[in-house]
């Protein structure tokens, strides 16, 4: 974790430098699309009050000055599968966004949606001298958390303090400046496959860009889709993407759990292609224009022309009923929702006060999903679009851009993480001494 600590600190420094210059880009690298937004940080006076959009509390004011999207290439299940194709797609979308913004971009913040994320809850505690808590005390408290064995080939993506307790007072977001005798903390740690992180960093470097940060797509989608009360009382955000369905749980405005299901809209399209024996492009069009998951009595009579360009006139003129199309799509969507339900149960989601569930991402726009999802996930389910940000084009305001908008918020106001604090030099020796004392007590 020491190597990652240093690399994350370096990326934070790069991001601060880029924001001081006033321009940074966010790059949402998904399985079905790659989106790039160029942000300009000019201070609160740059926001057009006529739009009715103002920066959130504590956030840096920014405006989107460039936006572009392209079809993703070389990606599979949220991970880079073919490096050259992904590099070409990233270059294409970044150049288009730069052309719209009329400014050169050197630094980007990217997302990761694959990598088999795993969540851990850590706890640490230190004794104080009865003086006011300072940043060094917070750093020592975070460093006292015992990191579990993550297994080979795992990398820490997020390490965020979610709660502080000072003596008998708990539920504190920031204990600095307060006086007490003992400081304890709870920290959420999210690990992913290190190979996925290394491939992403290498791909961005090959595009002549400098990586200024990495974030989980589940985390940023939740920041953009959940309202303040939902983040406070406890809610889950389900980002239904093309190759993966990401899941995050927020409580007291912090992410406390994240996971993903290696299924998404691409699998639904593949089922349509195989079931109706049509190309993937035709299957995607059928899913978008005529798809659904809840059939009615009228759907048996609603005939859809498949179309195609095979050259066989009879084959290209085939028709199917909408009920048959729904019969192909519904089992796969049910499988995705049931897998999400299993992960929610394993995380103890039912113990939260609110238990609200928010669906976002491109897959959440399937007609009838708002009626099917409550039967599997629970009654408090709604679909969501990301919050508005200044300068965002209309075409980028849909649910498919939840992670992209969340990256903007992440860039403007990043949450404190373990690597934002200077870890004490004696951390390793202190831990060794504690282990030695514990061994001595257990054996003598």
UniProtKB/TrEMBL annotation:
- Give the encoding gene's name: ftsA
Q: Does the keyword Cell cycle apply?
A: yes
Q: Which domain of life is it from?
A: Bacteria
Q: Which CDD domains match?
A: ASKHA_NBD_FtsA
The answer to whether UniProt assigns keyword Cell membrane to this entry is: yes
Task: Please give the name of this protein.
Answer: Cell division protein FtsA
> Mind naming one GO cellular-component term on file for this protein?
cytoplasmic side of plasma membrane
- Source organism per entry reads Palleronia sediminis
Task performed by this protein: Cell division protein that is involved in the assembly of the Z ring. May serve as a membrane anchor for the Z ring.
An example Pfam family from this entry, by short name, is: FtsA
Annotated SMART domains: FtsA
Q: Which family does it belong to?
A: Belongs to the FtsA/MreB family.
Topology class, membrane:
Peripheral membrane protein
One biological process term in Gene Ontology? FtsZ-dependent cytokinesis
Give the location in the cell: Cell membrane
Key words of the record: Cell cycle, Cell division, Cell membrane, Membrane
Q: What is its main location?
A: membrane
Domain SHS2: residue ranges:
24-225
UniProt subunit comment:
Self-interacts. Interacts with FtsZ.
């Amino acid at each position: 974790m020491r190597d990652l600590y240093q690399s994350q600190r370096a990326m934070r420094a790069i991001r601060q430098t880029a924001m001081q210059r006033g321009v940074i880009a966010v790059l949402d690298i998904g399985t079905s699309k790659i989106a790039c937004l160029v942000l300009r940080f000019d201070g609160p006076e740059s926001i057009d009050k006529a739009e009715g959009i103002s920066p959130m509390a504590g956030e840096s004011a920014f405006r989107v000055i460039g936006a572009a999207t392209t079809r993703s290439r070389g990606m599979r299940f949220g991970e880079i599968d073919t490096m050259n194709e992904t590099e070409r797609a990233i270059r294409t979308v970044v150049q288009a966004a730069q052309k719209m913004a009329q400014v050169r971009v050197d630094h980007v913040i990217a997302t990761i949606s694959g990598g088999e994320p795993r969540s851990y809850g850590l706890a640490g505690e230190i004794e104080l001298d009865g003086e006011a808590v300072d940043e060094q005390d917070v750093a020592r408290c975070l460093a006292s958390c015992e990191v579990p064995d993550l297994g080979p080939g795992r990398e820490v993506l997020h390490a965020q303090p979610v709660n502080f307790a000072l003596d008998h007072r708990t539920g504190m977001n920031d204990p600095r400046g307060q006086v007490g005798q003992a400081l304890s903390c709870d920290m959420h740690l999210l690990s992913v496959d290190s190979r996925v992180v290394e491939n992403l960093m290498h791909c961005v470097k090959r595009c002549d860009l400098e990586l200024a940060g990495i974030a989980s797509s589940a985390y940023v989608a939740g920041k953009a889709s959940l309202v303040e009360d939902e983040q406070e009382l406890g809610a889950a955000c389900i980002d239904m993407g093309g190759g993966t369905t990401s899941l995050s749980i927020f409580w007291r405005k912090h992410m406390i759990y994240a996971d993903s299901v290696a299924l998404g809209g691409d699998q639904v399209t593949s089922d349509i292609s195989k079931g109706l024996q049509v190309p993937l492009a035709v299957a995607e069009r059928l899913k978008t224009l005529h798809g659904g998951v809840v059939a009615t009595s009228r759907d048996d009579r609603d005939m859809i022309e498949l179309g195609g360009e095979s050259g066989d006139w009879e084959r290209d003129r085939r028709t199917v009923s909408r009920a048959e199309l729904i019969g192909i799509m519904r089992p796969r969507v049910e499988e995705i929702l049931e897998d999400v339900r299993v992960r929610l149960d394993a995380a103890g989601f039912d113990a939260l006060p609110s238990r609200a569930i928010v669906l976002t991402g491109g897959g959440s726009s399937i007609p009838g999903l708002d009626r099917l999802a409550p039967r599997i996930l629970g009654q408090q389910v709604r679909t969501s679009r990301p919050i508005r940000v200044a300068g965002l084009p209309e075409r980028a305001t849909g649910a498919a851009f939840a992670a992209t908008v969340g990256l903007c918020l992440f860039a403007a106001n990043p949450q404190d993480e373990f690597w934002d604090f200077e870890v004490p030099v004696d951390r390793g020796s202190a831990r060794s001494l504690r282990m030695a004392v514990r061994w001595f007590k257990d054996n003598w």
